[in-house]
Amino acid sequence: MQNIPTLTVLTSRFRAKLADESGMSTIEYAMGSLAAAALAAVLYGVINASAVVDAIEGIITGALTNTP
């Protein structure tokens, strides 16, 4: 006769698997890397906007042409 696990045994095994956090650090690093890449893409888009480029050029030109 085979031993058939009871509902209590199956429930405890299922809870143990849910509580297992092995591999969590890997997904946390992956999500952090994804968030950093998304932020970099947004900042790249903002910096390359024509208004921002014009403002930076104006600041640099003003700093180089003005004499104290």
Polypeptide structure, described:
This protein is an all-alpha fold and 68 residues long. The chain has a domain at 33-68. It is built from 3 helices and no strands. The longest helix is centred in the middle third of the chain and has 24 residues, at 24-47. It is rod-shaped. The chain starts with 6 loop residues before the first helix and ends with a helix. The model has no long low-confidence stretch (mean pLDDT 84).
What would you say about this model in short?
The protein is mainly α.
Helix-strand blueprint:
Layout: H1 7-19, H2 24-47, H3 50-65
List keywords for this structure.
single chain, 68 residues, rod-shaped
Strand content: under 5%
Query: What is the helix tally?
Result: 3
Uncertain ranges: none
Class by SSE composition? mainly alpha
What's the total number of strands? 0
**Biggest sheet details:** none
Helical content (DSSP H or I, runs of 4+) = over 70%
Rg from C-alpha positions?
A: 28 Å
Q: Order of SSEs, N→C?
A: HHH
